[in-house]
């Protein structure tokens, strides 16, 4: 038997699979709770404020992280909405 606290693989497919599983679990929890405050939290953080960005400037790595976080919040909110319909 393997130790569940130790990952089997550190590769990209393993990491991606783990993140997808966490997203699905979080979305199920959000759907089950049906809490308007959590829905508002996800909605507020599901977009990136582009007002301060210069369209001609070189993208800042922090902006890429912020964009990825916003995308993840949208995906969790969208998946939770689908789970609520089921």
TrEMBL record:
It comes from the Bacteria. This is Uncharacterized protein. It comes from Wenxinia saemankumensis.
């Amino acid at each position: 038997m393997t130790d569940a606290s130790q990952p089997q693989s550190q590769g990209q497919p393993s990491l991606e699979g783990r993140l997808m599983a966490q997203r699905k679990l979080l979305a199920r929890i959000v759907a089950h709770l049906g809490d308007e405050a959590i829905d508002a939290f996800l909605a507020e953080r599901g977009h990136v404020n582009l007002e301060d960005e210069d369209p001609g400037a070189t993208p800042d790595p922090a902006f890429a992280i912020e964009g990825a976080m916003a995308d993840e919040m949208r995906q969790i909110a969208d998946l939770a909405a689908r789970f609520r319909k089921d």
